[in-house]
């Protein structure tokens, strides 16, 4: 019996859609180039809504205002003993700081159409990338009041 205490990695992802394109990031991880939504881990003391706005800004230079919860996704990587619990948010980009330094590993933000996202499936960081986009386009939306944060 192991003394290992399992816990999921709680992450957030931003789904910004404008002019028929989604905001993604191109990032380098372990010498490979991937596409992902602006996403990252929940940090101590912050709400999920604060986390998604912060992650989008840090990874793209875009200020993001979440407007709805698109879905909650669970993805396990048994070989790495990791399970991700992702909260994906639809929202609006308010302004862009193109000269803002981006997080380590981020190459650049990319605006891609659904067709381009589907065509680049082998470069997606996880199966959640396309699924979140498809759920967004299918109209999946829960109000932000679905989430209660106790400070």
Task: Give structural notes.
- With 151 residues, this protein is of the alpha+beta class.
- The chain has one domain (9-145): Nucleoside Triphosphate Pyrophosphohydrolase (Alpha-Beta Complex).
- Helices cover 19% and strands 43% of the residues.
- It contains three helices and seven strands; from the N terminus they run E-E-E-E-H-E-E-E-H-H.
- The protein has helices at 48-60, 114-119, 128-137; strands at 9-18, 21-29, 32-36, 39-41, 62-77, 82-96, 106-112.
- Strands 1, 2, 3, 4, 5, 6 and 7 form a seven-stranded mixed sheet that branches.
- Strand 2 (21-29) and strand 3 form a beta hairpin.
- The longest helix has 13 residues, at 48-60.
- The chain is globular and about 50 Å long.
- The mean pLDDT is 96.
Give the key terms.
151 residues; alpha+beta; Nucleoside Triphosphate Pyrophosphohydrolase; seven-stranded mixed sheet
What is the strand and helix layout of this fold?
Layout: E1 9-18, E2 21-29, E3 32-36, E4 39-41, H1 48-60, E5 62-77, E6 82-96, E7 106-112, H2 114-119, H3 128-137
Parallel strand pairs: 1-6
Antiparallel strand pairs: 1-2, 1-4, 2-3, 2-7, 5-6
> Oligomeric state of the chains?
single chain
Structurally, how many domains make up the residues?
Answer: 1
The amount of helix comes to: 10-25%
Output the structural class.
alpha+beta
Top-tier CATH class: Alpha Beta
Give the SSE order as H and E letters: EEEEHEEEHH
Q: Total strand count, please? A: 7
Mean pLDDT equals 96
Reported CATH architecture: Alpha-Beta Complex
Distance between the termini: 35 Å
Inertia-based shape: globular
């Amino acid at each position: 019996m192991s003394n290992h205490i399992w816990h999921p990695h709680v992450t957030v992802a931003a789904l910004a859609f404008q002019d028929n394109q989604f905001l993604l990031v191109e990032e380098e991880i372990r010498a490979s180039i991937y596409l992902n939504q602006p996403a990252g881990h929940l940090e101590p003391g912050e709400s999920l809504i604060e986390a998604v706005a912060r992650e989008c800004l840090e990874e793209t230079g875009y200020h993001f205002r979440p407007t709805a919860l698109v879905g909650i996704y669970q993805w396990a990587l048994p070989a790495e003993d990791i399970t991700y619990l992702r909260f994906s948010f639809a929202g609006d980009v308010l302004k862009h700081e193109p000269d803002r330094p981006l997080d380590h590993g981020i190459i650049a933000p990319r605006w891609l159409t659904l067709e381009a996202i589907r065509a680049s499936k082998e470069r997606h960081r996880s199966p959640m990338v396309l699924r979140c986009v498809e759920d967004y386009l299918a109209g999946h939306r829960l109000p932000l009041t679905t989430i209660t944060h106790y400070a």
